[in-house]
Amino acid sequence: QIFQPLHTLRSAEKELLPGFHQFEWQPALKNVSSSWNVGIIDGLSGWMSFVDDVPAETIARRFRYDVALVSALKDLEEDIMEGLRERGLDDSTCTSGFTVVVKESCDGMGDVSEKHGSGPAVPEKAVRFSFTIMSISVQADCEGDAVTIFQEPKPNSELSCRPLCLTFVDESDHETLTAILGPVVAERKAMLNSRLILSVGGLLRSFRFFFRGTGYDEKMVREMEGLEASGSTYVCTLCDSTRAEASENMVLHSITRSHGENLERYEIWRTNPFSESAEELRDRVKGVSAKPFIETQPTLD
């Protein structure tokens, strides 16, 4: 072991550092570097163009999304192996077919300004984007149903929630939030069409990821989907009800909104193709007044 070339020892040394986990994506992620030993990066890293051609003046730090997910899976390595044993599955044959469900959360952290002291002048509000690994399942053979081998026991606990991005910004600042979380969304989108190859329990295994945006409160959903704020006539984030309609009918609501539809409505709002008055236009787009940038899943957590 001792008499090995220096680069081999360096590699072995890196493997022992916390957070340095070698992994691969098949196929490779689009528009994401293949480098896997990535630490904390600038929050605007990966942003191709400025919002409204003005750089976002803010401080943001984040992990690259895939690196953070790998780290989270390696933290759960023992739980995964224990889950396979409990289910009577042979870990040497279970090398593919793993599915990971990730819950995303994002919220403002309120006023974080420094009351005393002489620190740098920063915006007074902060936002945190984080995720929780909710469950891991595996399809042992082609015919059988997927078997859950890990379920987060405290899915709403602070302890299971992993911060991905921290930034000084007001959660109502739609443009800056878009600039900071835009690259995160691009990475998430890239991961949906690829499989992660990662060593767990001494064997390379392949994982697919599904993302559920159920950790956003109403204010954040409105911000991310480009809807008017909570004082709007259009009261619901899932359908087109107005306050008057909702007060008359509390029962017959259906989920009618979709991210794609919100994008289409924003384009109508932006271009006003029918040359309508502001009021008519607002009624047509049902309260969509900014470009939506994160697809929020209309589900209950």
Radius of gyration, CA atoms, in whole angstroms: 22 Å
* Count of alpha and pi helical runs: 8
Output the helix-strand order. Answer: HEEEHHEEEEHEEHHHH
Contiguous runs where pLDDT drops below 50 for at least 5 residues: none
Helix content: 25-40%
Strand content: 15-25%
Main beta sheet strand tally, sense and closure: 9 strands, mixed
Molecular shape: globular
Count of structural domains: 2
State the secondary-structure class.
alpha+beta
What do the pLDDT scores average to?
86
Domain V(D)J recombination-activating protein 1 DNA-binding: 1-23
Pfam family, one: RAG1_ZnC2
GO molecular function: double-stranded DNA endonuclease activity; histone binding; protein homodimerization activity; sequence-specific DNA binding; ubiquitin protein ligase activity; zinc ion binding
Protein name: RAG-1
Structural notes for this entry:
With 301 residues, the chain is of the alpha+beta class. It has two domains: 6-215, no CATH class; 225-285, no CATH class. 28% of the residues lie in helices and 23% in strands. The protein is built from eight helices and nine strands. Strands 1, 2, 3, 4, 5, 6, 7, 8 and 9 form a nine-stranded mixed sheet that branches. Helix 7 packs antiparallel against helix 8 (278-285). The model has no long low-confidence stretch (mean pLDDT 86).
In short:
Residues 24-96 form the V(D)J recombination-activating protein 1 pre-RNase H domain. With 301 residues, the chain is an alpha+beta fold.
